[in-house]
């Protein structure tokens, strides 16, 4: 046994030795490259001149333009109040050193220990989770205009950090660093950050406030308390713990600061046009080009926004007085044309259009029905709207919890957003297929792989919903949403130019049939408040207890998602559904945005049939049917039987679609415990009787099935009379 253990350890020992050897070789090569580059590229005099100027860059304002070349906003180095190191509280300095560079006073510009620790952590995680930069290196990084992820650039940063250390004292380095770093929202330096976030001078900052400020520069777009208070507070506590571990504060100070209530300054004015969109673009640019390039580099950023549409979006949204978001996308290009991320940017910079993950409710049913059509299921298919309980005890309910319609067509169920039919349809077509189709359409968020998916229980953003619906509007071609068309540097050199990334993910005929169903939602269903006097399709969505309300819809040239909901997830109010609160905002925006555009209809593909059917049965309309509607079908799935009695009641089942399980094969609900429902025993008896007829011809079999439904109806009427 012992010999076996020794044999097993040899490969591990060799593997560990190889890693150490490889790492040592890496350091040796890095040292050689550093020295060589230093000798051939830089002189001490040149490096010293770069550092001693202190005014490292000549700032040039970056400008952001809309799709028509009109100025939206400017990004520039503003709101900076330089202060001396003596004016900065010690606990603020300690907070930065604790979280950014705990070995600051001991290294000479670069930290081999920090680089090594970060290297091993990144290897272990398989991704970059730690940086090895010292405070001096971060200062060096900010002296270069561009953010190049190249070896030569990293070497330059390291060399400049070494020269900074030789030229300045540690306190001078800290002073430059703390006056230079970016804290988001246009604030550079700690003094501006204190004023921005707390409306205080540096000397007035508490320990907890100092820790919160120290946590922001790593990722201002994420750790800003105006954008993500929860993340900012968590990082504040991490910094406080680190300060305690390093001996900067006592345990009592740590515990008190950890529990201190943070009161932010919300008395800020914003002069930006389309502030949520500008912030969205700024975040993208900062991640790609860095603070210096964005705020000092004189960039020209050409975006997809249309200021005319943006103004109309803000007007439509502000009329509601509610919190939420609106985002509009051009289906053919993926261009974001308008974005409203909340009712007041000054009060909250949290962008609900891109950052709010909320349940879409019945607005997600669109992907269930898309999958059904894709599988050849007819809009005239009958599914029973009746109570059902699944094995885990879950029982879906309709909006009117105690009302059930009995047999209904899929068209009617979609227009009126009947939940139970949606769940049964999802069970029939398959959860996995629906998830795959939603993802193909543009949903990026994780979706729950269970039947509640039909009711929109998985959280998504308005941007995702607008993008996914735009795919349907674009007749099955997905286009990645984009906000930036082109970026030029100060000299006119193109840094990036974005073209629409397109992919055909669904067939045109499937999308057209679905669009026609979605038009019915507006014409006759829950989306009646979204009528705009031109071809339009959409779907309402409402979550339990009226917490979230949606309307997502489109015309051929514009897709738009409207979400309404409170940040604290409190109910909106009784019966405040998507059709009541979100659809009117969508209507006001879309009708205004498109008022000068010619009316367009959705292009009709060849493999579809539009047929007049009985509204109740879904069968070919008879001469005396009480209500008729025109329904679009995939060729081959349209009904062939006539509603011959014309009573508006279910007289015959539509023929099964190709590949569809016949009604005999359909699974019945699984009832658990003592839960019983009206007619359950009758259903089982009649089902057994029907199974005896399996050898009959197909036509006779369908008549037997219809007689089953009719017999159930008669028994229900008899029970009501008794």
TrEMBL record:
- Lyase is among the record's keywords: no
Q: Give the species.
A: uncultured Atribacterota bacterium
Which keywords does UniProt give here? Carboxypeptidase, Cell shape, Cell wall biogenesis/degradation, Glycosyltransferase, Hydrolase, Membrane, Multifunctional enzyme, Peptidoglycan synthesis, Protease, Transferase, Transmembrane, Transmembrane helix
Q: What is the lineage of its organism?
A: Bacteria, Pseudomonadati, Atribacterota, environmental samples
What EC number(s) does this enzyme carry?
2.4.99.28
Alphabetized PANTHER family for the sequence:
BINDING PROTEIN TRANSPEPTIDASE, PUTATIVE-RELATED, PEPTIDOGLYCAN GLYCOSYLTRANSFERASE
Record domain Glycosyl transferase family: where: 69-243
Q: Which SUPFAM superfamilies match?
A: beta-lactamase/transpeptidase-like, Lysozyme-like
Q: Residue ranges of the Penicillin-binding protein transpeptidase domain?
A: 324-590
Q: What is this protein called?
A: peptidoglycan glycosyltransferase
């Amino acid at each position: 046994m012992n010999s076996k253990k020794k044999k097993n350890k040899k490969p591990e020992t060799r593997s560990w030795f190889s890693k150490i050897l490889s790492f040592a070789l890496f350091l040796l090569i890095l040292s050689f490259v550093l020295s060589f580059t230093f000798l051939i590229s830089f002189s001490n005099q040149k490096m010293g001149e770069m550092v001693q100027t202190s005014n490292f860059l000549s700032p040039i304002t970056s400008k952001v333009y809309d799709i028509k070349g009109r100025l939206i906003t400017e990004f520039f180095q503003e709101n900076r109040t330089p202060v001396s190191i003596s004016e900065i509280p010690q606990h603020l300095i300690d907070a930065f050193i604790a979280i950014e560079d705990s070995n600051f006073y001991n290294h000479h510009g670069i930290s081999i220990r920090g680089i090594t620790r970060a290297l091993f952590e990144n290897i272990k995680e398989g991704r970059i989770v730690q940086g090895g930069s010292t405070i001096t290196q971060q200062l060096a990084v900010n002296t270069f205009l561009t953010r190049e992820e190249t070896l030569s650039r990293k070497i330059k940063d390291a060399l400049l950090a070494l020269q900074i250390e030789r030229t300045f004292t540690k306190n001078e380095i800290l002073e430059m660093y703390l006056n230079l770093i970016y804290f988001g929202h246009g604030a550079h330096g700690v003094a501006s950050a204190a004023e921005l976030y707390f409306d205080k001078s540096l000397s007035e900052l508490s320990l907890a406030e100092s820790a919160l400020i120290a946590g922001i520069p790593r990722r201002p777009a994420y750790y800003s308390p105006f954008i993500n208070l929860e993340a900012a507070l968590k990082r504040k506590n991490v910094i406080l713990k680190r300060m305690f571990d390093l001996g900067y504060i006592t345990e009592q100070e740590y515990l008190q600061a950890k529990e201190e209530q943070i009161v932010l300054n919300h008395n800020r004015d914003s002069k930006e046009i389309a502030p949520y969109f500008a912030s969205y673009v700024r975040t993208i640019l900062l991640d790609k080009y860095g603070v210096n390039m964005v705020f000092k580099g004189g960039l020209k950023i050409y975006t997809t926004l249309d200021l005319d549409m943006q103004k109309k979006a803000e007007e439509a949204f502000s009329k509601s007085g509610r919190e939420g978001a609106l985002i509009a996308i051009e289906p053919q290009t993926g261009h974001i044309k308008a974005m409203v991320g909340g009712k007041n940017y000054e009060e909250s910079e949290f962008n609900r259009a891109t950052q709010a993950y909320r349940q879409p409710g019945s607005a997600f049913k669109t992907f269930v029905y898309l999958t059904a059509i894709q599988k050849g299921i007819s809009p005239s298919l009958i599914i029973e709207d009746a109570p059902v309980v699944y094995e885990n005890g879950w029982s879906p309910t309709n909006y009117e919890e105690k009302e059930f319609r009995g047999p209904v067509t899929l068209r009617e169920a979609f227009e009126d957003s009947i939940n139970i039919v949606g769940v049964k349809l999802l069970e029939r077509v398959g959860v996995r297929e629906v998830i795959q189709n939603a993802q193909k359409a543009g949903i990026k968020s994780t979706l729950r792989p269970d039947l509640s998916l039909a009711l929109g229980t998985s959280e998504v953003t308005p941007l995702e919903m607008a993008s996914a619906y735009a795919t349907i509007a674009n007749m099955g071609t997905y286009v990645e949403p984009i906000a930036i068309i082109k970026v030029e540097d100060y000299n006119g050199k193109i840094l990036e130019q974005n073209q629409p990334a397109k992919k055909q993910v669904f067939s045109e005929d499937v999308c057209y049939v679905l669009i026609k169903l979605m038009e019915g939602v507006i014409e006759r269903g829950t989306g009646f408040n979204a009528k705009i006097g031109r071809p339009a399709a959409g779907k309402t969505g409402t979550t339990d207890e009226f917490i979230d309300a949606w309307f997502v819809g489109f015309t051929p040239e514009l897709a738009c998602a409207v979400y309404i909901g409170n940040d604290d997830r409190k109910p909106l109010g009784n019966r405040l559904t998507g059709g009541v609160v979100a659809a009117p905002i969508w209507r006001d925006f879309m009708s205004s945005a498109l008022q000068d555009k010619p009316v367009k209809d959705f292009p009709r593909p060849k493999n579809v049939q539009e047929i007049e059917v009985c509204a109740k049965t879904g069968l070919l309309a008879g001469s005396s049917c009480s209500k008729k509607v025109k329904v679009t079908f995939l060729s081959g799935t349209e009904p062939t039987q006539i509603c011959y009695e014309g009573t508006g009641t279910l007289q015959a089942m539509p023929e099964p679609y190709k590949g569809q399980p016949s009604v005999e094969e359909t699974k019945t609900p699984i009832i658990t415990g003592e839960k019983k429902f009206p007619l359950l025993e009758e259903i089982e008896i009649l089902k057994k009787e029907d199974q005896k007829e399996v050898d009959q011809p197909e036509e006779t079999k369908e008549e037997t099935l219809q007689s089953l439904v009719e017999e159930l109806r008669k028994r229900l009427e008899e029970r009501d009379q008794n």
